[in-house]
Automatic annotation (TrEMBL):
GO biological process: regulation of mRNA processing; spliceosomal complex assembly
Span of domain Protein kinase: 54-441
Keyword line: ATP-binding, Kinase, Nucleotide-binding, Serine/threonine-protein kinase, Transferase
UniProt xrefs under PANTHER family: PROTEIN KINASE DOMAIN-CONTAINING PROTEIN-RELATED
Keyword Zinc: no
Binding site for ATP: K83
Species assigned in the record: Sphaerosporella brunnea
Protein name as annotated: non-specific serine/threonine protein kinase
Top-level taxon of origin: Eukaryota
UniProt region (Disordered), positions on chain: 145-165
Pfam families: Pkinase
Single Gene Ontology MF annotation: protein serine/threonine kinase activity
InterPro entries for the chain: Kinase-like_dom_sf, Prot_kinase_dom, Protein_kinase_ATP_BS, SRPK
Length: 450
């Protein structure tokens, strides 16, 4: 009989494979190394939670701090989404407190229905610690992936290389719902802090209560359903990881995006009270300038992210594309600031004077310095030293990437809105409510409006 394996460290290993416990897993799942004390709870289909009340039948998704499952609430016979946080995140998150506060508020704000509501919560003890479990209504895919599921009725969302491009009316509806939800949060002193496509979920618009359990269980006819069994490098039997990792199967077929739909803001894991800010986890490409410079911040960081998404949903191209080689924060920040300068214009002196590497890219009168053509650009110098790789000004950038059925009048209207939102000074940015009153959001009929 082999000896028992040592208890893994509560800290995640680096990219150095000598610190890993397992052979790599190729299935598109969370990282197997995250199953260790203080991190993810191992879950299998058929597992039950809260004294048998919730039974897991399908994997819906995962994130940096949790896994999400479709479960049956066997007490009231309904389907729910079960979010199981890592033990580490469970001990520090404000997510439950924020949801409980939202539940106390009168849902009179029109944006209240555009924030995913909490149904139940409890703590679960497992081999990796104590995990906060949050129960929500089941939701469909996120705006990060919904474009992939759209039918032929929305061809512009399926063009090769279109990324997260949506038809104009659909993009407007997604963003309108997100703004309504944000306004509801902001009016109650809550900052979301992680506004991104993956946290904008499409509501299911069929009655799941009429769907048989067998049809909602993990579909084992798909090409990839679960990973191969994890194998430790030392050959021992692991006590902290599951027997397999499940591949996420969002409930895309239960969302009809060709007609009226509802989008809701999810994941309050990064949210905070406006007067008690915490370290944000906004994706690097969606960071507002004040986050890059480590300045105080408030709800206007959510507004900046909306501006970035407005550009991306209508063009299929991110406003800022940070290079894969920027694995160090300083180089990533340099790339980010260079692209913002190219697209939006010169940084205010207050920011420029604090940019440690500004003189590497700009001369004494703030003119852009071209690199020596005889000196090869190395990875640690950033990706945007090359003049040919520089981004275009916003007006040119948007017009070159916009959808073919968008006329000049509408393009100008959207560019004007982008300029209003993407202000370097957070005090100059409009509120979510202000943006909803912009002419572009007010014009015309919207078949998706809810």
């Amino acid at each position: 009989m082999s000896s028992r394996p040592p208890t893994p460290s509560a800290e995640l290993p680096s990219s150095d494979r000598s610190q890993w416990r397992f052979h790599p897993i190729t299935a598109p799942t969370e990282w197997i190394e995250e199953y260790r004390p203080n991190w993810f709870h191992p879950i299998h289909f058929g597992d039950v939670f809260k004294d048998g009340r919730y039974k897991v039948i399908r994997k819906l998704g995962y994130g940096a701090f949790s896994t999400v499952w479709l479960a049956i609430d066997q007490q009231v016979r309904r389907y729910v989404a079960l979010k199981v946080l890592s033990a580490k995140e469970s001990a520090r998150t404000q997510e439950l407190a924020i949801h409980l506060r939202l539940a106390e508020l009168t849902p009179s704000h029109p944006g209240a229905k555009h924030v995913v509501a909490l149904l139940d919560s409890f703590r679960h003890h497992g081999p990796n610690g104590i995990h906060l479990c949050l129960v929500f209504e089941p939701m469909g895919p996120s705006a990060n992936s919904m474009a992939e599921h759209l039918s032929h009725k929305s061809p512009k969302a399926n063009e090769p290389g279109s990324g997260r491009k949506y038809p104009k009316s659909m993009a407007k509806a997604i963003l309108r719902h997100a703004l309504l939800g944000l306004d509801s949060l902001h009016q109650n002193g809550i900052v979301h802090g992680d506004v991104q496509p993956g946290n904008l979920l499409f509501a299911i618009n069929v009655d799941l209560g009429l769907v048989e359990e067998e049809k909602l269980k993990q579909d084992f006819n798909q090409k990839q359903v679960v990973s191969e069994p994890p194998k430790r490098l030392d050959g021992k039997v692991d006590k902290w990881a599951p027997r397999y990792l499940a591949v996420a199967q969002p409930l895309a077929s239960y969302v009809d995006a060709s007609s009226a739909f509802t989008v809701k803001i999810s994941d309050m894991g990064a949210a905070f009270w406006r007067d008690r800010p915490k370290e944000p986890i906004t994706p690097v490409g969606l960071r507002a300038p004040e986050l890059i410079f480590g300045d105080p911040f408030d709800q206007s960081i959510d507004v900046w992210s909306i501006g970035c998404l407005l550009f991306e949903f209508l063009t299929g191209t991110p406003l800022v594309t940070l290079c894969w080689g920027s694995d160090q924060l300083e180089e990533c920040n340099d790339d980010h600031l260079l692209q913002l300068t190219d697209v939006l214009g010169d940084l205010p002196e207050e920011y420029f004077s604090r940019w440690a590497h500004a003189r590497k890219y700009f001369g004494p009168t703030r003119q852009r310095i071209d690199p020596d053509p005889n000196t090869p650009i190395t990875e640690d110098e950033g990706c945007f030293d090359d003049p040919e790789a520089r981004a275009e000004p916003l007006e040119t950038f948007f017009r070159n990437e916009k959808q073919s059925d968008m006329d000049e009048a509408e393009a100008s209207m959207i560019i004007s809105l982008l300029r209003r939102i993407l202000q370097y000074d957070p005090k100059d940015r409009p509120s979510a409510a202000d943006i909803l009153q912009d002419p572009w959001f007010k014009q015309g009929e919207d078949i998706y409006r809810q």
